[in-house]
Automatic annotation (TrEMBL):
Biological source species: Novosphingobium anseongense
Domain DUF6894 span(s) in chain numbering: 3-71
Name recorded for this polypeptide: DUF6894 domain-containing protein
Domain of life: Bacteria
Pfam family for this entry, one: DUF6894
Record InterPro entries: DUF6894
Length: 89
């Protein structure tokens, strides 16, 4: 199975040195989306903020970038139901 690396770009840059095996790029991207959701939630819980352009970059075994998931791609911000008023974030 192919090896994929998940580099995290949030408050710190963490390059994945170990990688994980997945059947293909699509399965690895699905995992990257789930991890981005977890990291976004953690950022809100622990730091009280969310920076939408933080991201996970997916690399293949040769080190080539094969995908990217930004926090803004996995988080939806909605106004309160029934309210037309928008509050600043």
């Amino acid at each position: 199975m192919p090896l994929f690396f998940f580099d995290i770009y949030n408050d710190l840059v963490t390059e994945d040195e170990d990688g994980m095996e997945f059947a293909d790029r699509d399965v690895a991207m699905h995992r990257a989306r789930a991890e981005a959701q977890n990291l976004a939630a953690e950022s809100i819980r622990e730091r009280g903020h969310l920076i939408l352009d933080h991201r996970i970059v997916l690399r293949d075994e040769s080190g080539d970038k094969v995908g990217e998931v930004r926090f803004e791609d996995v988080v939806e911000i909605k106004p309160t139901e029934g309210s037309q008023e928008r509050r600043p974030l």
